[in-house]
């Protein structure tokens, strides 16, 4: 991770914002996160704000990187994966290897999320079945019948012949 600031590429600021800076409090409020979280990302080397005395000064590049980090966390990427992906945004565009890596990570993450979705759907179906059974048992209890009675329904006795 380098601390250099680039003026081109996806982390470049939109026109009119190149000179804008933010305090840590402003960035935290804007991104609905905590100061502690931002400091953690700094300690991890994901953010490199300028220091003016004891004050942190965040430039547009830092702001974009924080947004990418937070998006990566929401999508379930590890900090290592996020670092690799975010660092790619600072590199010169057009590197096929970087894009291949990112596409591979997206594919892996998508597969994990699809599996989670299937697991959640199965768990919800199982919960529905248990809930139906519980509600049926509760109706029987409230009507004066025992839940076990439903399994042992009275049957007509047939005469036995010997």
Protein described:
This is DNA-binding transcriptional MerR regulator. By secondary structure, the protein is mostly helical. The protein folds into two domains: 70 residues, Multidrug-efflux Transporter Regulator, Chain: A, Domain 2; 46 residues. 56% of the residues lie in helices and 4% in strands. It is built from five helices and two strands, in the order H-H-E-E-H-H-H. A two-stranded antiparallel ribbon has the order 1-2. Strand 1 and strand 2 form a beta hairpin. The chain is elongated and about 100 Å long. The N terminus is likely disordered.
Topology readout:
Elements: H1 24-30, H2 35-43, E1 50-52, E2 55-57, H3 60-74, H4 79-90, H5 96-142
Antiparallel strand pairs: 1-2
Provide the residue-averaged pLDDT.
82
List the total number of helices: 5
Structural category is: mainly alpha
Q: What is the rounded Rg?
A: 29 Å
Give the number of domains.
2
Tell me the name of the CATH class of the largest domain: Mainly Alpha
Helix content: 55-70%
Largest sheet composition: 2 strands, antiparallel
- CATH-defined architecture of the largest domain: Orthogonal Bundle
Strand numbers in spatial order across the main sheet: 1-2
Task: Compute the separation of the termini in Å.
Answer: 91 Å
Strand content: under 5%
CATH topology name of the largest domain, in short, is Multidrug-efflux Transporter Regulator, Chain: A, Domain 2
The dominant shape is: elongated
SSE arrangement, N to C:
HHEEHHH
What is the number of E strands?
Answer: 2
Taking pLDDT < 50 over at least 5 consecutive residues as the criterion, the unreliable ranges are 1-12
